[in-house]
Automatic annotation (TrEMBL):
InterPro entries: Flavoprotein-like_sf, FMN_Rdtase-like_dom, NAD(P)H-dep_FMN_reductase. This is NAD(P)H-dependent oxidoreductase. Residues 1-144 form the NADPH-dependent FMN reductase-like domain. The keyword Lipid biosynthesis does not apply. Keywords: Flavoprotein, FMN, Oxidoreductase. Pfam families: FMN_red. GO terms for molecular function: oxidoreductase activity. It comes from the Bacteria.
């Protein structure tokens, strides 16, 4: 089973750091998972303009192919102005909704305002419902204060939440898609 961690932003690094930590933790719980990481900062992605996905080229085609080949997703986005990033929205718009059907999705948000934790519940989970994905109940919100001066996750509660999230994700994958997990 191929799990794709997606850092849905073209700026900053905290979202990618948290996604990386989650993917590492998931691999501990299930070494059989095939893990890939997609960091939008590494690509020049075109805006979705309604053309068929087969007409996109370059980085946009590479990213579409990677998204389409995944069996499940861990999506991360920073929160700007009370909503997820435009880069993440553009990515989702590029992919046909049917590609997400019956796939496990988990959500990570990062930001500097504690009220931003609500974005996953109020915007991202309903998006997953529209896409007919299975949503991990636990979401992760990482506040800027939970990182040390080297930009590493330093907060023990956040690390515990990452572990719980990873277990939930692996458990759902096992039950819904037949993947085995280790406790």
């Amino acid at each position: 089973m191929k799990i794709l961690g997606v850092s849905g932003t073209v700026v900053g690094s905290k979202t990618a750091i948290v996604i990386g930590k989650i993917l590492d933790t998931m691999k501990i719980h299930n070494p059989e998972l095939e893990i890939e990481f997609l960091d939008l900062r590494d690509y020049q992605i075109e805006f979705c303009d309604g053309r068929p996905i087969s007409n996109y080229t370059g980085d946009t085609k590479k990213v579409i192919d990677q998204m389409m080949g995944a069996d499940g997703y861990v999506f991360g986005t920073p929160i700007f102005q009370g909503s997820f990033s435009g880069a993440f929205k553009n990515l989702i718009d590029l992919i046909p909704p049917t590609a997400f059907k019956h796939k496990v999705m988990g959500f990570v948000t990062t930001g500097g305002n504690n009220q931003h934790f609500l974005v996953a519940e109020n915007q991202l989970k309903p998006l997953a419902g529209y896409l007919n994905g299975y949503v991990v109940p636990k979401t992760i919100f990482a506040h800027n204060s939970q990182f040390n001066d080297k930009n590493e996750v330093a907060d023990l509660q956040l690390l515990e939440t990452i572990n719980d999230f990873s277990k939930q994700y692996c458990y759902m994958s096992e039950r819904l898609m037949g993947v085995q997990i280790k406790n």
